[in-house]
Amino acid sequence: MSIDFSLLLVLLVAVCGALALLDFAVLAPRRRSAILLYQGQTLEPEPAVLDRLNREPLLVGWGKSLFPVLAIVLVIRSFLVEPFQIPTGSMRPTLEVGDFILTNKFIYGIRLPVLGSEIIPVTQPKRGDVMVFRYPIDPAVHYIKRVIGLPGDKIHYDQESKQLYINGQLIEEQRQEDEPGSLGSITWYREKLGETSHLIRKENGPTRYNPNTDCGACEWTVPPGYYFMMGDNRDGSHDSRYWENPYPSPELQGMVPERYIVGKAFTIWFTWPSPRLQNLPSLSRVGPIK
Questions:
Q1: C-alpha pair distances (Å), 7 with each of 71, 262, 283, 286
Q2: Domain Peptidase S26, which positions (predicted)?
Q3: Which of 1, 97, 116, 254 could, after both became Cys, cross-link 259 (CB 3.0–4.6 A)?
Q4: Are 103 and 82 in contact (CB under 8 A)?
């Protein structure tokens, strides 16, 4: 079962805030009244008794201490910047396993935590953006892919030639080099989507068929309010081409709804492929994501 950290954080902030409010409105006045009553009943109040009467319940103390910290974390993660770790190679060579990235949370609009509803529009995703979003099959899981299709676009992917067409136009690719260590079995190409020029990775040879890498006719029309996503590792990415359809309408097969947008990945801040003591984090891949 996947854990939705954003939902967990919202719940923790709500609980801690409720405890702080309970103390402010109910418990603290009771403590003050008890102290005044005790002081009125004795000529020499004992410090130990005063301390006991003024003592906060342990749970309330924890809640009041954690509330501002968790609230700040919630605001930063929900509206400004959120970190993620890359768990798979679906975006190679742009992103490698173990890359730690930062995601701009406000560039696509200010959204309510958990619900994802836009409350303040800013800009719309552009073709070629590297975007973090909630996986339509399991919204508690975050995915990262490249924006291929915008609302209204017609997408076609030729599985034999591994060529991409958008609105009937072939997306040109320029061969760059064979992937180091692949012995010529994998090649990198440079692709341009909109204003974004980036590398993609392809295996040299036919696509290996299995039920998870067959998109049938491989043609889609992107409905309003949805986006079509693909990984840069074209032969090693589970993306809009192959997802099961969680929607009642077949036209929404593979589409990411706007409400599932999380943000735009904009930089790698360090890399740690194997988080173990003997393997230290590396700064060798630090830089902007293109």
A1: 13, 14, 31, 30
A2: 60-270
A3: 116
A4: yes
Q: Tokens 């986006």 — which residue? A: 227
Q: What is the spatial distance between Cα 277 and Cα 127, in angstroms, rounded to a whole number? A: 40
| 90 catalytic residue (yes or no) | yes
| Catalytic residue (choose from 64, 105, 145, 264) | 145
Angle 222-228-234 from CA coordinates, rounded to 5°: 140
If DSSP codes are grouped into helix, strand and coil, which group holds residue 85? strand
In words, the CATH class of domain 86-288 is mainly beta
154 is catalytic: no
Q: Note the Cα 108 to chain centre separation in Å.
A: 13
For residue 210, what are its two tokens? 């299995």
- 15-19's contacts with Cβ under 8 Å and 24+ in sequence apart are 15/63, 16/62, 16/63, 16/64, 16/66, 16/67, 16/70, 17/63, 17/67, 17/71, 18/63, 19/59, 19/60, 19/62, 19/63, 19/64, 19/67
In the chain, where are the structural domains located? 5-80, 86-288
Burial of 220 (0-12, 13-18, 19+ CB in 10 A): buried
pLDDT in tens, 88-137: 999 999 999 999 999 999 999 999 888 888 899 999 999 999 999 999 99
